[in-house]
Amino acid sequence: MRSMLRSAFAILALGYSPFASAAEVEEGFVRLDNGKSFEGWKISESPDSWSIEEGAFKAKGPRSHLFYTGDDKPFKNFELRVDCKAKNNSNGGIYIHTKFQDVNWPKYGHEVQVNNSYTHDPKKSGSLYGIVDVTEQHIPDDTWWTETVIVKDRHVTIKLNDKTVVDYDEPEGKDAFNKDFERRLGSGTFALQAHDPNSTILYKNIRVKRLPD
């Protein structure tokens, strides 16, 4: 017990709290959410699909996307970490290199899937949606995990906790994903997805570290 107390006091002496969130002790990262409000974020259609619960953005309701608008400088190369929890048979997503739009599924950027057991879509958590699809469920329902997305030029790495599930190089001159969506790397902001009224996803500790261009 005494050794535990000594360790705690040593941590405090260094300026850290033993109860600090991961985002507060990860060197070089900036947290994008505050756990209390939607400051720095903008909701598209169906704003009632979003609420805050236990310090997390809660997505439950008709299609809607929550866009990060707290920084005017686009994100190009970065490491993004998001703590996620999905209820059973729930679907969500994290968009990268996107930009705000009022309605519909985001046209720009890529979606990183958040889906552990959603039965209507075989693309599971960690998928670079429609590009590199993960079909194995790695995360149990109702459990917090960290989804990490690293973008460096034309390379994308996606991790579920410490497990790498996507390691992708985008070909030079890659065409659009289809005529309606521009699924290519570039730059932009981030967005979180509320997929449907029967899905419940929680997102928190959203933090990012910019990497050199």
From TrEMBL:
<keyword id="KW-0732">Signal</keyword>
<dbReference type="Pfam" id="PF06439">
    <property type="entry name" value="3keto-disac_hyd"/>
</dbReference>
<dbReference type="InterPro" id="IPR010496">
    <property type="entry name" value="AL/BT2_dom"/>
</dbReference>
<protein>
    <recommendedName>
        <fullName>3-keto-alpha-glucoside-1,2-lyase/3-keto-2-hydroxy-glucal hydratase domain-containing protein</fullName>
    </recommendedName>
</protein>
<feature type="domain" description="3-keto-alpha-glucoside-1,2-lyase/3-keto-2-hydroxy-glucal hydratase">
    <location>
        <begin position="28"/>
        <end position="209"/>
    </location>
</feature>
<feature type="signal peptide">
    <location>
        <begin position="1"/>
        <end position="22"/>
    </location>
</feature>
<dbReference type="GO" id="GO:0016787">
    <property type="term" value="F:hydrolase activity"/>
</dbReference>
